[in-house]
Amino acid sequence: MRNIGRMGESIFKYWCDSVGLTANSSIVDERGWDFFVEFPCDSSSVLPRDMLPIPIECKIQVKSTDFKTKKEGIKVSNLERLIQAQMPVFFCFIEFDGKNEAQAVYLVHVGKHIIEKTLKRIRELDSKGKSDRLNKPEISINYTESNRLTEITGESLKKAIEKHIPGTLKEYISDKTKLLDTLGFEDGKGEFTITMSGSDPVSEIVDLSLGLCKEVYINKSIGYHKRFEILSEDQRLSSEGGILRIEAKPEPAILKFKEFKFSPGIELSADLYLSPFINQFLPEQYLKFRVKSTMFELIFEPFNRKLKYSFHFPDNRRNYLNELKTHLKVFTLLKKASHPLVLEVSDKAKKRTPISFNISVSDEIDDWSGVYKIVEMASSICEKFSISESDVLVTISELMQTQHSIEDFYKILYADPKTVYIDFPANSEEYEQGDQLAFTSSVMATIGSHTIRCFWAVIGSLSLVNQDQYRLIAEEIVAGNELVAVEGEVIEQSAIDRKFDEFEEELQRMGLATIRI
């Protein structure tokens, strides 16, 4: 009686030898493969020898038959070994059809489909407590005309193997490892079932996911591993009683406050908290989201038409000047509004449709318009000297402490020359009516982390008011060189004097006499 298995293995080795492939046979066939096939180095490459890619290596299981069943049952234990092999694996089906020569040859690659099918079957058996008996059940491996070699030759076999490894062997192994690590986990790697007491435990979980509370108490929890939607309980993740914590992770959001739907509005940045449980597992009455900025917080429940808000101005914590200005502008708008404002909330990445609702808090918010006015002055001073507001750190308390110096600085920088005049005694023969003079001085203001000193001059023509008094009618107010010190820096008096002198010298070169106030 002929040994068809030996016939198949012999002819397979002959095909490999005929095209320079080395086929090392398995001495004991217990691991699901018959041959370890090695390809030769690519001698046609122009690369140096040490830079050549690793030659193809693969494992091949040869299956010989006299029947055209087009399938073969393979033990799950053998498939487990084959899919985990760090190299390509193939089944080579040889049909003899009762003859002594091969009539058809099929090469089936152990790729994604077979890997996925095997992993899922292993997980199913494991969930039933049968993971120690994988040598009993089988998985059917089918082959069709798409797997058939074009010719019954070693060259055709070689090309069929290479077709499944289009890149380098290193890339193939990396892709296969990724498949093994990710298949079946598309919807997560685990699940928890928790039992809670209380009047509304679902709301507690939603609040926990939004960071509105730090933890919730649970009566019982059961943890599961999950793959291919098949659950397996993990005793290490299960317990009687406990505390559940969730790290709430916000995403960047843009808030836009508008007086009306189509008005331009005021924009500011905030953090948007969305519960991962909403829209997937829970009814819409639990829909809730949270918006938090540096100075206020909003919690909105669209279905229940509820809006909670809170405002906070920490005097001991600094904010960037531009953020403080925007927030105070919003608060001033909210306070003065005679009707509800429109608030649009959108994620910064524009992945979702903006959420829009009305907000009215005019009776419940303090009047910050006076502070906002000082902040705007501070902002204008920074703009005048090209100081970025996003670099200036300040508290509201600091602004109010330096309010008068900021107001004086602002008035000088932005004064209307027509409203300024200077009177001084006409007791000197040095000046005459009509002379062009420049009265110079310096002004200083501290805006949080920055101190600014500016030299300025009132330029105009002299007019004799009476025999004892001159009046300078201002024609122009000029701001000269500025000195800026960031917190921790000290502007030395010598530097101040030098800059002041340079400023006056520049005015004198313009033909102006200078009088330092």
Protein architecture, described:
The protein is an alpha+beta fold. It has a 7-stranded antiparallel beta sheet. It is elongated. Strand 17 and strand 18 form a beta hairpin. Helix 2 crosses helix 3 and helix 8 crosses helix 10. It is 27% helix and 34% strand. It is built from 11 helices and 24 strands. The chain starts with a helix and ends with a strand. The model has no long low-confidence stretch (mean pLDDT 87). The longest helix is centred in the C-terminal third of the chain and has 17 residues.
Number of helices: 11
Query: How are the strands of the largest sheet arranged?
Result: 15-14-13-12-11-17-18
Strand segment count: 24
Q: Which parts are unreliable, with pLDDT below 50 for 5 consecutive residues or more?
A: none
Biggest sheet character: 7 strands, antiparallel
Beta-strand share of residues: 25-35%
Helix content, binned percent: 25-40%
| N- and C-termini, Cα separation | 123 Å
Compute the CA-based radius of gyration: 41 Å
